[in-house]
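[Automated response] Your request has been received and processed.

Submitted sequence:
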Amino acid sequence: MKIQDIIEGKKEWRAHVARVKALPQDYQIVYKEIQKYLFKVGPIELTEGTGLLSGIIDFFEEGAALEKGVIEVTGSDVAAFCDDLIKDSKTYADIYQESADPIVSKAMKKDTNK
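Generated structure:
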């Protein structure tokens, strides 16, 4: 990664954070919880810029412009909202599972052949 890429990434992130801070307080709170949730669940695309997170902010900005409460926008189950956003995304858990399956399978074969 070049130094210019790092600088551009920081600029992009700062602009992203500024957009979050411009949201109404209730939207900011829910956004931060969504961000934490997505960082824990680990969709791979989160490491490729702010695309998914920026899309959430776009959605929130539209809701705020229409003077809707954040729960009207996301629904009362925010985790389900997040899961729906990433349902077709590959996660780090998927990668780990894919790497573990052959190891477990090999160990099972070895154990049953004894």
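Summary generated for your ticket: The CA atoms of residues 42 and 68 lie 29 Å apart. The chain has a mean pLDDT of 85.
If you did not submit this request, please reply to this message.
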